[in-house]
Structure formats: C-alpha cells, structure tokens
Write a structure and sequence with these properties.
The chain has about 250 residues and is α/β, with parallel strands linked by helices. It contains ten helices and seven strands. The chain has a domain at about 5-135 and about 150-185 and about 240-250: Rossmann fold, CATH 3.40.50.150. A seven-stranded mixed sheet has the order 3-2-1-4-5-7-6, with helices on both faces. Helix 6 (about 135-145) runs antiparallel to helix 10, helix 8 packs across helix 9 (about 200-210) and helix 8 crosses helix 10 (about 215-235).
C-alpha cells in the first residue's frame, strides 16, 4: 500500500515530529542509531545531523529512495527490511527510533520485541505514535468506517495509548508524554483533503476499494468536514496529538 501515491509529500508535513523525537531521545555524536519503518527519514535525517551513526530501515524501496534524496550527503545507511523481523544482531544499537512508522506493522507484539532486541542494555527505544483520540485517530476511524469491515488486528493507534503501549513493552520501563505537531499547510480543508486523495496511501487505497462514484463522493465530503473541524478546533491551523514513548532497555 505504501507504494501508492506520494507519501513523501505527506511526510513533509510532520518533519517537526521527527526532530522532536530525536531531541527527546537525546541522540548524540557517535551513537549507533536505528530508525525503524523510517519512511523518508524524518527521524534518521536529524539523527545524522546530530553526528550519530544512523541506519534507516523501511519495507518500501520508493520511500527509502526519497529519503536518500532528502538526506543529501548525510552519511546514513538505507536498508530495505521489515519492522517485525529486523536484520540485525541483538544489542546492536544505542538508540532505536520510529516516527509514526513501526506502529503500522501488522504484528505489534513481535515488532515491540524486535525494537527491544536490537537495542543494547541501557539503551533507548524512542517512538512517536499517533494517538487514538486525537485528530489523526479520528482520521483513521473515518477510513475504517468506509472500508466496510473491522481492521485486521489491533489498530495502529494502539501504540498511541499509554496503557496499551505499556502492555506491548510489558516488564520494561516506559515513559510517555502527549505532544502536538503543527502542519505547515496554509491551504483550505478542501485543498488538504485533495492532497490526501492524491498522495496519502491509506486514503488512495480506501477510495479505490469503494464501489461507486457516489460512495467516493460521500467519503470526500466526510474527509473535508473532518479536516475543517480539526482546523476550527486548532484556531485555523492543523495541530495533531501524538504520543512520545521512551522505553529504557534493561
């Protein structure tokens, strides 16, 4: 699915989240850092700018290529791979990051174990996850409603619920903090909805599966209405809640 559209354009709206995640993880020069489900490198790139030794892994080659272009001359290793089956040895990294990436892996429990497995004792797993009760949570609820059947497995926004994320990392020290990201988008709700229709893979897949033009038109209206309500609630801009998760590996 993530090969559809142009996710790199959507990722540009949340680069601030990646910078905040790297700062919260206190990434430093010389640390071995892994960005899991890195997409176009929203966390990998600021980690490399902090002079860390960065590896960025994602399952979608097109996103990795977009990340390489965005990174320019920064020394980042870009690898194709699955968040639930990381191709690394135990304890290989000082910091393991994921900015709204690993949360979309189908097998959540296995993915959580893999994130911890490749992080050294005393190291840090740091995640940025969309919350279930924020604007993005409502956005995914809209997609679920139009998909016509329950999601296959737990919702990705489970990773944005403090109690649920502690259950995923059971027995390990977990700290969470809700934060906000502002979209640097100055258009209207209809224009943002059009961007999602053209570029965002989950929206493209949802619309493609609808059986008629009437159903697609209804979805489009509901998407505009949702974005308009979120803009109004944020005083004319888009501000979305996310959960910072810091897991200290024993």
């Amino acid at each position: 699915m993530w090969e559809l559209g142009n996710y790199a354009r959507i990722a540009e709206l949340i680069t601030g989240m990646g910078r905040d995640l790297v700062a919260a993880a206190d990434v430093r020069s010389g640390q071995r850092v892994l960005d899991v489900a890195a997409g176009t490198g929203n966390a990998a790139i600021p980690a490399a700018r902090a002079s860390a030794e960065v590896t960025a892994l994602d399952v979608t080659p097109q996103l990795l290529e977009a990340g390489r272009r965005a990174a320019g001359d920064l020394p980042i290793t870009w690898l194709e791979g699955d968040a639930s089956d990381l191709p690394f040895a135990d304890d290989e990294f000082d910091v393991v990051l994921s900015a709204v990436g690993a949360m979309f892996a189908a097998d959540q429990e296995t993915t959580a174990r893999e994130l911890v497995r490749v992080c050294r004792p005393g190291g840090l797993v740091a995640l940025a996850n969309w919350t279930p009760d924020g604007g993005v949570g409502r956005f995914f609820a809209l997609l679920d409603r139009y998909q016509g059947e329950p999601p296959d497995g737990p919702s990705p926004t489970r990773w944005g619920d403090p109690a649920q994320v502690r259950a995923l990392f059971k027995g390990i020290e977990v700290r969470t903090e809700e934060r906000l990201v502002d979209y640097p988008f100055t258009g209207t709700p209809a224009e943002l909805a059009a961007l999602y229709r053209d570029a965002f893979p989950p929206v493209i897949a949802t619309r493609a599966a609808l059986g008629s033009d009437t159903a697609r038109a209804a979805f489009d209206r509901d998407l505009v209405d949702l974005l308009a309500a979120e803009s109004e609630a944020s005083s004319g801009r888009w501000r979305f809640a996310w959960l910072l998760v810091l897991v200290r590996v024993a």
